[in-house]
Amino acid sequence: MVLQSAQRLNKHRGITTNLGDAMMKNKRTHFMAGVLMCLFVGAFLIIVGRVLYIQAVGQVDGVSLKEWAEDKRTSTYYLNSERGKILDSNGMTLAYDRMNYRLYAILDEEYSSQSKEPKHLHDPEKAAELLAPVLDLEEDALLERIEERIEAGQDQIEFGSAGRSLSLDEKEEIEALDIPGLYFEKEPSRYYPNGVFASHILGFARNETMEDSNEEVITGITGIEKVKNDILSGEDGYVSYQKDKYQKKLLDPKEIVKEPVDGQQIFLTIDQKVQILLEDIMTEVEEEYEPERMTAVIMKAKTGEIVAMSNRPSYDPNNPVDVVNWYNDVISTPYEPGSTVKMFTWAAAIDSGNYNGDETYKSGSYQINPTVAKINDHNGGKGWGKITFDEGFARSSNVAASKLVWEKMGPELFLEYLEAFDFDKITGIDLPGEVSGRILYNWPREKLTTAFGQGSTVTPIQQVKAATAIANDGKMMQPYVIKEIVDSDTGEAVESTSPTVVSEPITSETAEQVRGLLDSVVNGENGTGKAFKLDNYSVIGKTGTAQIAKDGNYLSGENNNIYSFLGMAPKDDPELIMYVSVTQPKTEDNETGATPVSYIFRNVLENSLNYLNIAPDKDDHDTIQTFEVPEFAGKSTASVEKELEELGVQSTVIGDGDQITHANVQPGEQMFFNDRLILLTDEPTMPDITGWSLRDAIELASLLDLEIEHIGNGYVVTQSIKKGTSIKKGDYLGIELESPIDEKKQKSSNDDNEQETEDEDTSTVNNEP
């Protein structure tokens, strides 16, 4: 009974426990369901809120959905602008953009999936075999490179520098190989049609990749190209429109077109014909005498315009590799000038009222006191006895210069004149990298040596600028090379440079008297500059032979000097000033260091004066060797040839047409009789141009709109287009040039040697400090 009661009690308790457990479990279930419901509702509200927020503000994480959608729908391609041209004073193009091509290959097989013919590079072995010789690459290396890209799963491949800047002719040669998968992309590059021509003035520009856009832009690296990069650079345009997913324009594409703005054009004061003449002559001297350095500059005395400027070593801006000298030595390399500076020493003495040209002094050597070393004349201190100061100038006496500074003027007054001639500052010429010389003027010895061009340093452009005061009746002109900047679209001048008188360091009477002294150097009985006479023009100037300092000492030995001449012509009213220097030339035993200097000066200045229509001033001058070019266009070929034959003009007729259409010289221009007149007929074919100068070949290419490239310097020995071949615009002409020994130059040098052998005074130039 008791047992049954206990069992019933335990059963009741079990039921109660199970019921409690069930109730607890139910509560937990409802709680979890509530939590989940809350989480779901919360998440839903968040999502809906986010959607509503996005709809309201139109942005996701700061990105505008509207702009994003428009960007996805919008297709944009750029319209390249053209970099501004650099031209000479007559409008001849010296630098311009030329279209080249970049080679690449498609490697992805999918590119050929929609075509019956392969559109990708499917045969690497054959491609490497055919392409390697054209690109001047090793076949095995090229094949390995292609296969590596294929194994890496890359879609395409480029071919480095060998596949870039390809000419139209090279592009067509590669296309003729008929290799599937090869493609070309146009890319403009900077081109300099004259090669080694005023390279240190023009500088060069090359394709540079922009960091922000990864686009390639032509950027100036040196010279005018660098300092005027912002002006020369244009502004690219673009075309944008909206498209669907099939890349087709929408009905309302919202097309936007922004036209490109080309860069502005820069006209230089440089005259292309004078510059080419200077380059050719300097190249001859470089090859014959192998000097360490050469500089030359021609300036218009009355305006300060630079007509020509060149240095050696130089470089070809089309291929600026292994460049020995980046500096424009005319403006960037100060050096001890030697005796050319004496014209300013005498000018200071005359202008300050401390000069009597008839007064005599004892030449040979001079010592102001026992503690200061002697100053010797350049003939080993022997001198020429007791001579006048005028004769001392003609003989380039160091003793005379020292006495004028120490005894007549006083060093402090002389320093004032040096500063008045701006020898203590840069000229401010509109070229990059100008450096000023230094007036070394602390000790008595330095003050004496500065008088004859030793110790203190100057640059060639500083001397030429100072010489304008002597040539231009006391007015010293500002040198410049940029004539004007012109808007490429309108053709209107945006900026022009006018001649500027910097100062008047001396009077017109002083300038005239100094010109008389300079005349005695070239034309006087005792002058050191007889080798610099011209045939048709009277030249005045001053010779200079500067010692070269190295490691605190001056070099000794044969021709270890800088030989120079600073001259001007015509003597009574100078129009052109020319400075030439040659450093350490390798001359023959019967030559002096002045021989290569005089060869450059005579050949370039005589022809430049003639070409610029400056009237000869010698009574016995030869007939002017220029003529005015008549109008040829529209005339029959036969009548033009007869007319030129009667005039005695060298001409080349291009083609077999019956009528002349163009010439390389405009009607009314002056032309040398020995220049080549190129006449284009209405049926042009390629002439034989072997033996032509680079200048003539370039003018032919310009006349025929050919793409020209050259190797070497001198005269044409090979040409890529055969004689008689029909020519069309854009054809590629490659030429190779060599520079033979010039017989005229040899004869000219022999004439100098005969003259110098007869005249003992001229032979001493080699030792002149």
Layout of secondary structure:
Elements: H1 2-57, E1 59-60, E2 63-64, H2 65-73, E3 74-79, E4 86-87, E5 93-106, H3 124-135, H4 139-151, E6 156-158, H5 168-175, E7 182-191, H6 199-202, E8 205-209, E9 216-220, H7 223-227, H8 229-232, E10 237-242, E11 256-258, E12 265-268, H9 272-289, E13 293-300, E14 306-312, H10 329-332, H11 342-351, E15 360-362, E16 365-366, E17 375-376, E18 386-388, H12 389-394, H13 398-409, H14 411-420, H15 444-451, H16 460-471, E19 476-477, E20 482-486, E21 493-496, E22 501-503, H17 508-523, E23 540-547, E24 549-550, E25 553-554, E26 561-569, E27 576-583, H18 594-611, E28 626-628, H19 637-647, E29 651-654, E30 660-663, E31 670-672, E32 677-681, H20 694-704, E33 707-711, E34 715-719, E35 732-738, H21 743-758, H22 760-763
Parallel strand pairs: 4-12, 29-32, 33-35
Antiparallel strand pairs: 1-2, 3-10, 4-5, 5-6, 5-7, 8-9, 10-11, 12-20, 13-14, 13-27, 15-18, 16-17, 19-22, 20-21, 23-26, 24-25, 26-27, 28-31, 30-32, 34-35
Helix pairs in contact: 3-4, 9-18, 11-13, 11-14, 11-17, 13-15
Would you kindly provide a written description of the structure presented here, covering whatever features stand out?
This protein has 769 residues and is an alpha+beta fold. The protein has four domains: 2-57; 82-233, Penicillin-binding protein 2a (Domain 2), CATH 3.90.1310; 272-611, Beta-lactamase (3-Layer(aba) Sandwich); 626-738, 2-Layer Sandwich (Trypsin Inhibitor V, Chain A). Helix content is 35%, strand content 22%. The protein contains 22 helices and 35 strands. Strands 4, 5, 6, 7, 12, 20 and 21 form a seven-stranded mixed sheet that branches. A five-stranded antiparallel sheet has the order 14-13-27-26-23, sandwiched between helices. Strand 20 and strand 21 form a beta hairpin. The model is unreliable at 741-769 (pLDDT under 50).
